[in-house]
Amino acid sequence: MKTFVIGDIHGRCAQLETLLEMLPRDEAADTVVFLGDLIDRGPNAPGCVDYVIKLCQANPERVLCLRGNHEQMLLDFIAGTTNLWITPVTGGERTFEQYAGESLTVRNEQDLEDARQLIEEKIPAAHLDFFRERPYYHEDEFAIYVHAGLDHGKHPSESSPQLLIWSRDMDFYKNYRGKPCVFGHTPTPFLPLRGRVGRHGIYIFHSAIGIDTGYNHQSPLSCLSLPDFTLYQSFADGHEETHQITSFIPETGR
Q: What HEC string does 41-90 produce?
């Protein structure tokens, strides 16, 4: 019995399909955990969401998807509580275009309200419901799984939901030594160097394991298998890589 953990996808539907085809998965016994951030930046966010929904519906006990901060930003934009989702750095305008079928143009407050109404109308209700129903963490015998990280090593049940999807805590990255915690959110090139050397793009330091391997044309989409620590990666150019991690494994994961 294994758990396959998949990092931030960000609209890379073709890479996701390739990655899943690589996995030696027993659908009756193995679990797949998506760490969230299905949308934004990439070429096919609606396709990613639809694909993951179908996987979850087909095998709800063995496939699950966590809530990412990008899904939360979209929900917050629709609710009118924040406009962060449509700022250029998030890549939300690409998801807007993909769902709405037109470019996002905001010149005044009325444009903003029109954009909120349009995106709420254009995103299928099943997709919005899926975003709203996503849990903030998962735990099994191998690890704890969250989108962003833990609050000073506390169990996610004792942490604020906001922190679980937004945290970027250097102390967690460098000093966490509890039950192995697999997270995404922060691209591994931005994590401390000492946890990245010789790890094929992922981050492992003590019990913190980061698998968001970035978003650009050279970045792989990564999946880590537990408890065997096999790393599967698919690339935008179609090539695939598999690595067996033998060093740096947390003591509690050996």
A: CCCCHHHHHHHHHHHHHHCCCCEEECCCHHHHHHHHHHHCCCCHHHCHHH
Instruction: Tell me the pLDDT of the chain (254 aa) as tens digits.
Output: 999 999 999 999 999 999 999 999 999 999 999 999 999 999 999 999 999 999 999 999 999 999 999 999 999 999 999 999 999 999 999 999 999 999 999 999 999 999 999 999 999 999 999 999 999 999 999 999 999 999 988 999 999 999 999 999 999 999 999 999 999 999 999 999 999 988 889 999 999 999 999 877 789 999 999 999 999 999 999 999 999 998 888 876 66
Exposure of 136 in the CB half-sphere (CA atoms within 13 A): 17
All domains of the chain in start order, with CATH: 3-70+138-253 (3.60.21.10)
| Element of type H or E holding 121 | helix 109-122
The structure tokens 């298998």 sit at 225
Rounded to whole angstroms, the Cα distance separating 181 from 177 reads 9
Q: Tell me the C-alpha distance between 52 and 33, whole Å.
A: 10
Token pair 């989409």 in the structure block, residue:
221
- Residue 80: CB atoms within 10 Å: 10
Q: How far, in Å, are 83, 87, 103, 111 from residue 106 at the CA level?
A: 11, 11, 10, 5
